[in-house]
Specification:
Blueprint: E1 3-9, H1 13-30, E2 32-34, E3 43-48, H2 53-69, E4 75-80, H3 81-86, H4 89-93, E5 99-102, H5 109-112, E6 118-120, E7 141-145, E8 147-148, H6 159-163, E9 167-168, H7 171-183, E10 188-192, H8 212-220, E11 227-231, H9 240-248, E12 255-257, H10 265-271, H11 277-290, E13 295-302, H12 309-322, E14 326-331, H13 339-345, H14 354-377, E15 383-392, E16 397-402, E17 407-411, E18 420-429, E19 432-437
Parallel strand pairs: 1-2, 1-3, 3-4, 4-5, 5-6, 7-10, 10-11, 12-13, 13-14, 17-19
Antiparallel strand pairs: 8-9, 15-16, 15-18, 16-17, 18-19
Helix pairs in contact: 8-9, 9-11, 12-14
Bound molecules: 5'-deoxyadenosine (5AD) and iron/sulfur cluster.
Amino acid sequence: MSKKLYIETLGCAMNERDSAHMIAELEEKEFYSLTDNPKEADLILINTCSVREKPEKKLFSEIGQYVKIKKQGAKIGVCGCTASHLGDKILKRSKAVDFVLGARNVSKISQIIHQKRVAWVDIDYDDSTYVFSQNQHSALKGMINISIGCDKKCTYCIVPHTRGNEISIPADLILQEARRLVDSGTKEILLLGQNVNNYGKRFSSAHRAIDFTQLLNEMSQINGLERIRFTSPHPLHMDDNFILEFAQNPKICKAIHMPLQSGSNEILRKMRRGYSKEWFLNRVEKMRGLVPELSIGTDIIVGFPTESEEDFLDTLDMLEKVRFDTMYSFIYSSRPHTEAHHWLEEEQVHLVDEYIAKERLNRLKDRHKEILTEDNAKQIGKIHQVLVENYDVQNLWLEGRSNTNKLVRIRTDKNLIGAMCDVKITEVKGAQLMGELV
Ligand code: 5AD
Ligand code: SF4
């Protein structure tokens, strides 16, 4: 009987991809099979996120929960960003943890499971040319890492500390992986990196150096590949060349994530984002000029140290001007090893009062909800191209994402999973669009 693996994944798409890599390695090299029941697992992995303090704090209570229900002899491993960040402190604090594997070390998963009480968290480790085992389950949508780590020094962000310096994965390996996925039935590929559009700046050894725009172009020439998405790009690196390729290449989906973080130039400077609100707006206008249906997503942090009401109003003003289609918003959380954390420790700056930060977050979210309701209503009658991913037999509808990444349900009794369909929107329910085949 094969051994069972249970894996819990927190955090971003990068962590999801890392989990998929670890699953494939353990299936192929160690003969594990995946279970969704931790009680029957021989190995429990928690792939952690440390971008904000709360999930990190929850880690130890979660380990406690697993200890209560796990099979006798089952191992527990802590992987990912909190593993990088806390390292062997996790082993010291919890006797139940068998090993700790940092976010930059996932390629060592099949070795570390045979070790006792070790922490492998080297953030200089380079697995940019490691060829991971292949996931056996063919899927309509695939993910490919194009770079690891991050070279930016945003003053709030712990990621450079948990994932190390940025290294690009050689283009030929990426394209080979894309061809393999397409041959096994994948229609849509999501390219991943902390800073995808900085691709090509540094490779670990001599490789054909191309930039992100060229990579998109070469990937789009793969026959059978229908859609390309990517996340997360940095607004600073959205040059004209990139915007033209993005706009003109029909395989590149017309949805882009542009993490604004703040609408105040003063706060952007303190965050060390490298752009102004004027630059951000200029990029948005240029893209929307070329792609009117473009969907724009963003991330916003409220309550960054020193943020005044006026700074926050600048953020609200950017929301009015851009009318983001999706918005993830967070209250600033002070993270160790970041510059803003040092400013706070040295009392050069102070945290924004928690009550004020919460109130700002609510105002931002409320206004965004109103904007979405107004903008979604304009979708009625529009035609979207949808890649069908699910068939809900009970409700008799198909589910998929439009090219602009909106969730669309299609009323029909036909099972069209895998098909690319033109759909006319007839109804809007919250953020979700209902439609019919045309
Ligand atoms: N506090 C709050 N939010 C943060 N993010 C990153 N670091 C922090 C922090 N210290 C948010 C940013 C980023 C998203 C992934 O998480 O908005 O884009
Ligand atoms: Fe992803 Fe950042 Fe969280 Fe790590 S800390 S899992 S890179 S969001």
